Each structure stands twice: as structure tokens, then as C-alpha cells.
Amino acid sequence: MKAAEQDGKGLRLRARLRALYHGSSPAAVRFRFGVIIVDLAIIAFFIAAPILRDYGWAFYTLDILVLLLLSADLAARAIAWGGLRDFLKRPIVWVDLFVLLTLLFPDALFNLGFLRVLRLWTLIHSEFFWRTVGRRYDDTRIEEIVKTAGTLVTFVFVVTGFVYTSFIGRYEGISGYVDALYFTVTSLTTTGYGDILLPGVWGRLLSIVIMLAGVSLFIRLIQTMLRPHKVLHPCQTCGLQRHDPDAVHCKACGQILDIPNDD
């Protein structure tokens, strides 16, 4: 009898969480907006962690609070998903598990803490984010711009964290997190003021990687912003995904399209 009651409670909990994480009701949308806001605040904490670490017990208190929040969120998403095996196959889950590991051992894994910022990339590219935000901004072009900008911002802060943890205390040019951020941005934009130069062959190779990858991401962002607006509407005949908003026929095969239009 007790086992049946527990099974019933478990099923009700799963149904409730599934409705919140995957449903379309106003309450579910508000819940997901709240989760996204908390996620963005946590990501801001991750970015500022190298600076906040100097505050001692206050930093570790926040670290534990973030650990509890992310653990609760991950457990709730796992229950809502249904199958644990399928849930663990998702790359975003492994990113979250790694983040939890760095929060659980903040001192031992401090040099890998900069990878926590990858959570920004997984959030911006997640179905969870666009199923929530897309209800208000249902625009393919806006989605592409936000994803590209999110990738660029993630790259900047991941590289900044890597430069900071790799060269702080070993090279006098990098004396703080802001110096590492300054070096990353000047290298990415190829400004190259020359006041901060990473020493050795590895320093030069890192600078080359930042310039090539950063400039590519920046150009990609500009292209996304300037590219003519397209809508996502797969052609039933040839499968072409993107078309002009007022297109009547598919430009690849000539098939008649039925693109929804609010006008």
C-alpha cells in the first residue's frame, strides 16, 4: 500500500515538473522565465568568480548557494525528462555535471572554473530557452543574432578565464582578471596595443588562436545582423529550410509555399 502511494506521488511529481519545464500554460512560461533569470544571474557569478574569490567566506557562501540551486534544477529536469539514460545522453547535462563538480570542489578545480561560463552557450542554444523566450520574440533572425552573440561572449570569457588561470602570478603583465579580459579583447579585435604580451611560444600561439577564432566569430555576428531576413519554413518537396518572408514559391524547386503571415 505504501509502495503504491509512493509511486503515485512520484508520478504526480513528474507530471507537475513536466508541465512546468515542458508545458505551454502561462504558469509554466512564468516559471521558465524565472529559471532563465536565475541562470543568467548564476552565469554572472561565474564570470565574476575570480574577483569575488578574494571576499573569502562570502564567496564560498554564494558558491554553496549556486551549488544547491543547480543541483535542484538538474534533479527536477531529470525527473521531468522521464528516462535517466536518455537524459544523460544530452551534452548540456554533462556541462551541468561538470559545473556542479567545480562548485563542489572550488579550490581543487579552481583552474578549470572558467569553463563554467560554457553554461551561457548551452543556455542560449537550448530548446528550453527558445521555447520560453521565443513565445515573445518568435523571429528566426533575432534567434540567430542572439545565438551568435552568445557564442562570441562565451568565447571571450572562456579565453579570459584561461589566460587568467594560466598566467596570473607567472607573468607580471597579467596581475588581475581585468588584465586578462583586456588582453583577450585587444587580441580578438587585433588592436594589439602591445602593453600586454604573453611570454614564450605558447603565449604567441594562444594569441594567434584568439585572433583567428575571435575575428571569425565577430565577422559571423556582423554577417548575421546584416543578412537579409529569412523565415524558417521547410519546403515539403525539396526540404529547403529558409525562405523570404513573402515567398509564394520555393526558389529551389518551385513548390507552392504556405508561410504563415500575420499581416
UniProtKB/TrEMBL annotation:
Keywords: Membrane, Transmembrane, Transmembrane helix
Transmembrane segments annotated in the record for this chain: 31-51, 57-80, 92-110, 145-167, 201-222
Name of one Pfam family that matches: Ion_trans_2
InterPro entries: K_chnl_dom, Volt_channel_dom_sf
Membrane topology designation: Multi-pass membrane protein
SUPFAM superfamilies: Voltage-gated potassium channels
Residue ranges occupied by any Potassium channel domain in the UniProt entry: 153-225
Transmembrane is among the record's keywords: yes
Intracellular or extracellular location(s): Membrane
Name of protein: Ion channel
Native source species: Peiella sedimenti
